[in-house]
Amino acid sequence: MYSSMSPAVRSAKVELSEPELRQYLARYLRRRLPAADAEDALQAVYCAALEAQRLPEERTELRRWLTVVARRKVAAYYERASSEQLGDPPELVAQPPSIEASSLLRWAERQAAESQLEHVNETLDWMARESDGEKLEAIAAEAAVPSTRVRQRVFRLRRFMKARWALELAAAALGIVLVLLWSIFARRTEPVAKPVPAPAPSASVVAPPDDGRERAAELRQRALRSCALARYDECLSTLDEAGKLDPAGDSEPSVVEARKTAIEKLTPRAPTPKPSVSKPTSKSKNGGTPSTGTSAN
To answer: How far is CA 93 from CA 25, 36, 70, 98, in A?
Structure first.
């Protein structure tokens, strides 16, 4: 399996330059180390591979050999960190997954738990690693399981997931259709209020014309104030003007009383005649009797 011949070593080192192999090792280290330390560990793995005198000739064996070297680099990192600082290894600060990814992962875990497939959690992890770009052959080599068995288990779980996903989509589509049908049916059965036509104006009902009643009321209020201030001429003239606009308003008790008071105040009174007093007349020269008066006793 191993060869010390330089052509075999050169062939293995050519395979080290494949981007897919580098991406696999980078993902493996980033899941276990901080980003900066993972990059340093990746360079250390490649340096170890280039300095090695013997490398596996087969691609699967080369991937497994590099994975073992990477695992040792991770272990050395934590041993060095624990020796430099007492306490637990530093916790890796990872970005939280998005809401959509978390929801999809929880759904997949629930569906996998409901399935009756064997080793379903391990198979689900294989599916996740395959979605990250890893090859099933490399996963099988790392797990020491035949690649055909890995493919079969992943295929069965993926087929089960697709069937459950299609079933849930059909149920959601059916629910949407039922809601639409219900809304259409409810809209048809709702009583539609018919517009009530506005009543035509009757020929006998005629709006009263503006006959100046408001203006007459204002004039009468002004006239009453004039009467209260003893301005009777102004009071009468204002009442007359209001009477021309609204004759019916002259019959109000306050208007009648004000008009009566103003007329009385403006009408001059006739002088009272003084009582006449009879005076006695003197006797005439010819000895006649007086025409008026009482005789002396």
So the answer is: 20, 12, 20, 15
CB 92 within 8 A of CB 34: yes
pTM as predicted: 0.31
Cα(170)–Cα(177) distance, integer angstroms: 10
The pLDDT value recorded for residue 271 is 63
Q: Note down the domain range covering 24.
A: 2-83
72: in domain: yes
How many whole angstroms separate alpha carbon 44 and alpha carbon 148?
Answer: 33
Residue 152 lies in a domain: yes
Same domain, 57 and 126: no
Do residues 65 and 129 share a domain?
Answer: no
Distance between CA atoms of residues 4 and 64, nearest Å: 19
Of 170, 194, 221, which one is at a domain's C-terminal end? 170
For residues 167 and 104, the model is more confident at 167
Q: Which residues contact 42 (CB under 8 A, 6 or more apart)?
A: 22, 25, 26, 29, 70
